[in-house]
Amino acid sequence: MLTRYLAEYAWLGGDSAEPEVLIEVTDGRITAVTTGAAAPAEATRLPGLTLPGLANAHSHAFHRALRGRTHGGSGTFWTWRERMYALAARLDPDSYYALARATYAEMALAGITCVGEFHYLHHSPTGAPYADPNAMGSALIQAAGDAGIRITLLDTCYLTSTVDGRPLDGPQRRFGDGDVGRWAQRAGALKAAPHARTGAAIHSVRAVPADQLATVAEWAASRRAPLHFHLSEQRGENDACLAHYGRTPTEVLSDAGALGPRSTAVHATHLTDIDRTELGDTDTAVCFCPTTERDLADGIGPASALTDAGSPLCLGSDSHAIIDLFEEARAVELNERLRTERRGHFSAAELLRAASRAGHAALGWDDAGVIAPGARADLVTVRLDTARTAGVEPGPAIVFAAGAADVSHVVVDGRVVVRDGVHASVDVPAELARTIGAVTS
């Protein structure tokens, strides 16, 4: 079935937007893009600026329940982590499905058409597997489908609590499979879906011993699947790694064969010059999550130096302190300005590409994130008449003005998921309130 959309303006990947763009869609794919087109009678008009679908390359869905609940004092990343563990201990497949569905629906409202879920909440609170060992992962896949977005489930290997190999304890017990072989067996049995793909993740060098890293990397390589890992998010992690291995986390992962064009380093905040060169030379992507990194006082990662070295940049909302890829994108540039006291490190078009095409590529969806024939029909329309966007010239510079609340229309694989700022099937505020209340009360 052919569907036509006439965008008042559309960003097609360059340094400006085109007016009156006719986008034709058949079976979930864009079949034609015509600029300066007259409006066919049956075309759906998209007032505002239409962008390709945005990709949230790093998510921990259950962290959404912590928003606004961890700011009562000072503390550190490590004290925040204890609050996160307490929440993790309360979830089961049903409550995780409900919370994730509401969280993914919030992403859809923000123009996110695909999410990379960094999933390590595998087993029951005691560490014993559920009757279906992948019940939690399957709940996330179903939640994304029911919220109307695609998902890459990055099944995460998490075996130890410290770099020197201390066993998992307390709430961490549900994260682990015992050893990497059992992780690989369970992850390999996970069933995907038309809207879902699976990949692998190494939680961090503190959670997977060096002699087991290669197995995770080989598992992903044999499937040509994405491989993601938290990297050097905290200085303490670097110090522990240097003390135990005599090498940085990047060097340890490199030795295990974990770097490469299908790999993505998340955060990559505290790196040496050699680390940055290693990541760039291997075409390893980097995923920055600025709203989480500043919320947890992690630091400012070297985004410009990494992209100059050759690492593609993508973006994530991680702990969901907010869900707004426009904010994540502009924060990359604004953080660089704060660090260097100089403007102009990333163009607006580069930031939008990081939020769209580069994010989809990092998640294994190379056919998404661009408005072009043959691509998946993911469209996100941003209003140009709100208090934030009124008077802004239509084009990629919208990334410096717009926010999630300005998204009016979202199409995912040719299906309308958001219309006039309202989700087609989920009462997002009500479901968030209900599901968060159920796991925090």
Explain what you see.
The protein is an alpha/beta fold. The chain folds into two domains: 2-52 and 369-423, Urease, subunit C, domain 1 (Roll); 54-362, TIM Barrel, CATH 3.20.20. The chain contains 14 helices and 16 strands. The strands form two sheets. Strands 3-2-1-4-13-14-15-16 form an eight-stranded mixed sheet, with helices on one face. Helix 8 (273-281) crosses helix 10. It is globular. The protein starts with a strand and ends with a helix. The mean pLDDT is 96.
Short descriptors:
single chain; about 450 residues; TIM Barrel; 2 domains; about 35% helix
Describe the secondary structure blueprint for this structure.
Layout: E1 2-11, E2 17-26, E3 29-34, E4 44-52, E5 54-59, H1 77-88, H2 93-109, E6 112-119, H3 135-147, E7 150-157, H4 180-188, E8 196-202, H5 210-222, E9 227-231, H6 235-245, H7 249-255, E10 263-267, H8 273-281, E11 285-288, H9 290-295, H10 303-309, E12 313-315, H11 325-340, H12 348-355, H13 357-362, E13 379-382, E14 407-412, E15 415-419, E16 422-423, H14 428-440
Parallel strand pairs: 1-4, 5-6, 6-7, 7-8, 8-9, 9-10, 10-11, 11-12
Antiparallel strand pairs: 1-2, 2-3, 4-13, 13-14, 14-15, 15-16
Helix pairs in contact: 2-3, 2-14, 8-10, 11-12
| Fraction of residues in helix | 25-40%
Strands side by side in the biggest sheet: 3-2-1-4-13-14-15-16
Shape call = globular
Main sheet: strands, sense, barrel: 8 strands, mixed
Write down the CATH class of the largest domain. Answer: Alpha Beta
Total domains: 2
Any low-confidence stretches, pLDDT <50, length ≥5?
Answer: none
Please report the total strand number as a whole number. Answer: 16
The residue-averaged pLDDT reads 96
Give me the strand/helix succession. EEEEEHHEHEHEHEHHEHEHHEHHHEEEEH
